[in-house]
Structures are given as structure tokens and as C-alpha cells.
# Entry
Amino acid sequence: MSEPAEPLDFEAALSELEALVQSMETGSLSLEDSLRAFERGVQLTRQCQTALQQAELRVKALSRDGSESDLPPSGEGGDAH
# Structure
């Protein structure tokens, strides 16, 4: 058995995941290579989800009262007068 790969940062994991999707979409991979790519994609997806959850927790911890609030879209919000 091979050891699990060291976790990548979010951007690297997402980039690798996008490359895997592109290679799978071409249809040129063998069945075995497709299965390996799929398995790696599942690992990367889980890594990305975990990183996003951790980032969300950090943002909530840094907010004043920890409550969720919707941010206005860019360019809207406070008065700039």
C-alpha cells in the first residue's frame, strides 16, 4: 500500500482537481487510469471541502459576535459620502 500524499494547500488541490477533470473529459484515459484519477479526485475534493470548512470557522471566529451575516455584493453596502 502506498502512503497517502501529503495534503496540498487549497489552490494546489483545486488546480490538480481541475487538471484531473480535464484529462478525464477527453476520454483518452484507460479504465484503470480513469479509476485512479477518480479516486484522486475524491481525495482532492475532500481536502478542498475541509479547507473551506476550516476557513469558514476562522472567519466566524474573527467576526465580532460569531453570527452569520450576508455581505452586500461588491460596490454596494456602505455610504461613501
In short: Residues 24 and 72 are 38 Å apart (CA to CA).
